[in-house]
């Protein structure tokens, strides 16, 4: 199975990196693709440019090969719809299972995503608990009832269509908090890799 971890990464932090690594390891994924969105469709535009967000992710991923930077959303003009990304991955990988990784905050808003019902035709959903995330309600909750599985082994038996809630180390780190710290002149050390912190400070991305 190939993991698909999308985000704005504005900036990337240990909440992304540690959870991505744990999901990759627990499910023995062939690779975990980390995909920065050019234009996230369902939120305010990111503060840092697509290039800066990609550079920060590349710095964060240096020296390891389990998490892989995938730039396809940055290269595609217009809003970065995850359904288009999954269509292109599905075309490349045939029947290989794909696992779309989402924090439970993101999963709770899934029914606002473009062509959201197609997502589970293209990939499994791997939903990570996130501090303060809350339980999903409405359509995502119903989807979880219909498609949720407790046995991770089932994910490898078909290319898409199941939802697995995965336990990860709980890290209450958010990019919003890091941007606010930078704007207020406070320290963000130990929340994200030093190389990323040095880059965002040298380029005055969030001051
Ligand atoms: P922002 O604060 O700007 O909204 P963010 O920290 O939530 O950013 P995103 O890039 O928007 O980061 O998140 C990408 C994905 O990573 C989403 O699925 C989100 O739920 C998940 N995620 C981010 N931080 C964590 C965390 N600390 N624990 C678990 N999942 C996380």
TrEMBL record:
Its EC number is 2.7.7.18. InterPro entries: Cyt_trans-like, NadD/NMNAT, Rossmann-like_a/b/a_fold. GO terms for molecular function: ATP binding; nicotinate-nucleotide adenylyltransferase activity. Pathway: Cofactor biosynthesis; NAD(+) biosynthesis; deamido-NAD(+) from nicotinate D-ribonucleotide: step 1/1. It catalyses: nicotinate beta-D-ribonucleotide + ATP + H(+) = deamido-NAD(+) + diphosphate. It comes from the Bacteria. SUPFAM superfamilies: Nucleotidylyl transferase (SSF52374). GO terms for biological process: NAD+ biosynthetic process. Belongs to the NadD family. PANTHER family: NICOTINATE-NUCLEOTIDE ADENYLYLTRANSFERASE-RELATED (PTHR39321), PHOSPHOPANTETHEINE ADENYLYLTRANSFERASE (PTHR39321:SF3). This is Probable nicotinate-nucleotide adenylyltransferase. It comes from Thiohalobacter thiocyanaticus. The gene is nadD.
């Amino acid at each position: 199975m190939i993991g698909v971890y999308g985000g704005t990464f504005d900036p990337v932090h240990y909440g992304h990196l540690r959870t991505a690594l744990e999901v990759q390891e627990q499910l023995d994924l062939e690779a975990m693709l980390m995909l920065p969105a050019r234009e996230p469709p369902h939120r305010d535009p990111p503060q840092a440019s697509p290039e800066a967000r990609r550079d920060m992710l590349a710095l964060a991923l240096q020296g390891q090969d389990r998490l892989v930077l995938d730039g396809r959303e940055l290269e595609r003009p217009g809003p970065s719809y995850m359904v288009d990304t999954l269509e292109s991955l599905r075309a490349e990988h045939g029947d290989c299972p794909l696992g779309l990784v989402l924090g439970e905050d993101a999963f709770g808003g899934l029914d606002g995503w473009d062509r959201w019902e197609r997502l589970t035709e293209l990939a499994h959903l791997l939903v990570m608990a996130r501090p303060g995330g809350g339980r999903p309600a409405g359509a995502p909750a119903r989807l979880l009832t219909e498609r949720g599985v407790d046995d991770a082994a089932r994910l490898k038996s078909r290319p898409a269509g199941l939802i697995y809630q995965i336990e990860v180390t709980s890290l209450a780190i958010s990019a919003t908090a890091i941007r606010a710290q930078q704007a207020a002149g406070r320290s963000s050390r130990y929340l994200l890799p030093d190389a990323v912190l040095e880059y965002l400070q040298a380029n005055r991305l969030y001051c």
